[in-house]
Amino acid sequence: MINKEYTSTGPFMGPHIREKWTSQWIMQQVLIALVFPTIAAVYFFGLWSLVMVIVSIVACVGLEFAFQKIVWKKVTITDYSAVITGWLLALTLPVTAPLWTLLIGDFIAIIVVKQLTGGIGRNWLNPAVAARVLLKLFFSPWITNWVTPQPDVVATATPLADLGNFAREVSPTTPDLVDLFMGFGLGGPIGETCKFALLLSGIYLIARKIINPLVPVLTLGSFYSAMLLYSGFDFSFANAHLLSGALIFAAVFMVTDYTTSPLTDKGKYIFAIGCGVLAAMLRICIDLPGGIGVAILVMNLLTPLINKYTVSRIYGE
Amino acid sequence: MFVRIKRKLGGVLVPKNKWLTKLESIKDLNAPGRIILPMNMHIGKPAKIVVSTGQTVKIGTLIGAKDGMISANIHSSVSGTVEKIEQRIIGVNEVSVVVIKNDFKDTYELPQASSENLVEIIKNNGIVGMGGAGFPTDVKFLLKEHQYMETLIINAVECEPFVTADRRIIIEQMNDFIAGISMLQEMMSIKQCVIAIESSSEEAIRNLEAKIDNEQIKLKILPNHYPQGAEKIVIKAVLGKELPAGKLPIDLNVGIMNVSTVFATFHALKENRPLIDRVVTVSGTPIKHPQNLRVRIGTPIENVIEACGGFVESPMKLINGGPMMGKVIQNLDEPVTKTTSLILALTREEANIPEEQNCIRCSECVNACPVNLQPISISNAYRAGNIEETKRLGVLNCIDCGACSYICPSKIDILGDIRAAKQKVLESR
Ligand code: SF4
Ligand code: SF4
């Protein structure tokens, strides 16, 4: 007896098969990449960093869930994007930031920037970046109270404070490159001081084909070139700038954000270069650590325009 | 990002699964007890039925007559009597079908006295494009005054997964294949012929390379990704020219035919033989013995499945055509038609499409689109009810390849939206 049993199921038209990957899988890869700087954060700033990360994630997921319940929308917390936002935001704050500032940041990110503009895939601004910049504007004393890593927790300036203000060369107090790269003895946001960990994250995301390698490379490259030009090719100045502040963190995790960057590869490259150059200008002109955040927001707002001018020519048109 | 998509080319890398049948040489399937001939085996107007119930027919008897410019003749593939003429729903359309009961005598009748005019012979024998679209072949060769065919592209790409019919034909009937091409070339005084073939067809490529000694026939090996075989994409890959929306290849002085069509045309011209059978790949993990079969047109799919040993597990989907562009077979008594190159069975696991999620704007659909559309933007505009915008975004240029839906990690039915938008745009004209 041969088996000929068959009843048709599913849609009539193709495609009848799909690539196996899912949005969740992509987001999980980002979460894995976030583990590297988090380990560094715990190593340099203590277990409290972990508490911050967890609180922030719980807050973001909770807020998203509550908001979507209240407005009767489909709950989308299973897509992990709120987890990423919460995690990212926590990593951009110093260990001394009171938890309530973190929670305000989470609220701004999830409710104001993300949900009120339509939820995942629709927000214009990068939620974590916008929240970070607003916190910086309004809650500066609380969240710029940098500390150097343990054991001797003392208030200190970030290395950037020595580099800003139209400085054209490295000041004597700027840590050496190895310290800047590894995060030894640096003050700053918990996730951003160890460039080595960020490098690992970047490599992981590139290896997993989650981000286009040219995007962070162009961001950093254009930033570095701008700094070189400005300082009259003072490499130590440009190096110090490259390894200071949130630049590398943002280049790996934020400039590469899918939702708030342009659709085409060409657009993404323009976006990346824009972020790098603007960040350099902001650092030079206004003494503003976290200038990359503002740069990203500006480029976010320009994204529709970039999209418009980078549409590929349609076949046959 | 880079593994799934060949960036510059567009398109996607789909597991091809050709190994299931690529070494299976073509076997003849015995004629079934009954054949079912739908009158719409080609695009354009359905053929007009010219037989009546009870009438005896032979192999090659005209059953449906070409009706209008874009239409094609349909012939009986068995000898016997016309049992029924009825309306049936096949796919989404209701269509007239002629059911013929086989008397197994296999008596022949050649179609209308052969004519001097070669295009006329192709037309009489009911040749249509056998790759899927079913465009009447005579129309391709019916040139207007200022037109000429400079290049003939033989589309042997077979980019859909699973299907191996064309490469088997090339391997097994190499001499006829070359002879067929040369004949067409002479008949239309075509300057050059290019055989476009996917790099994964190694055996066919090796044989062709050894065989082609003719200056005018060239081999073009194309990368192994999807939808490299779509007409517009092949033309671009071979000639570097782009076919604008709504234009025919002949507007670029190009003719394009797939392998089976070349054979059918060759036999029509040489022996006045109508299109009554074709090679079909029957494949997929639920099929017991996947293979390549030469099947009479009109054979119920049930017989074909039977010849392959039936199913090892009940498939979730049976598809007429490939998994990307094929259409679901709703019933096992649907017949093999002139355009059936593949009958594919997919398991539940393979055919399962997870629930749609929100777009994360990963841009993969944009990178995948071989004609450079922004599928997600079109889908968004359609869902927002903005049909004008979908038109501006070039929805009519979409070639329905499905690469965008295939790649989307959020499993959004982008092509579904695009098809619907296209429909709306066409209606509003
Ligand atoms: S529709 Fe799918 S593939 Fe296209 S951008 Fe959105 S998530 Fe990515
Ligand atoms: S928009 Fe059309 S042509 Fe582009 S990938 Fe999707 S189905 Fe293919």
UniProtKB/TrEMBL annotation, chain B:
GO terms for biological process: electron transport chain. [4Fe-4S] cluster 2 binds at residues 369, 398, 401, 404. InterPro entries: 4Fe4S_Fe-S-bd (IPR017896), 4Fe4S_Fe_S_CS (IPR017900), Ion_transpt_RnfC/RsxC (IPR010208), Nuo51_FMN-bd (IPR011538), Nuo51_FMN-bd_sf (IPR037225), RnfC_N (IPR026902), Soluble_ligand-bd (IPR019554). Residues 349-381, 389-418 form the 4Fe-4S ferredoxin-type domain. GO terms for molecular function: 4 iron, 4 sulfur cluster binding; electron transfer activity; metal ion binding. It holds the Pfam family Fer4_10. Its EC number is 7.-.-.-. Binds 2 [4Fe-4S] clusters per subunit. PROSITE patterns: 4FE4S_FER_1 (PS00198), 4FE4S_FER_2 (PS51379). [4Fe-4S] cluster 1 binds at residues 359, 362, 365, 408. Its cofactor is [4Fe-4S] cluster. GO terms for cellular component: plasma membrane. It is an enzyme of class 7 (translocase). The complex is composed of six subunits: RnfA, RnfB, RnfC, RnfD, RnfE and RnfG. Part of a membrane-bound complex that couples electron transfer with translocation of ions across the membrane. This is Ion-translocating oxidoreductase complex subunit C. The gene is rnfC.
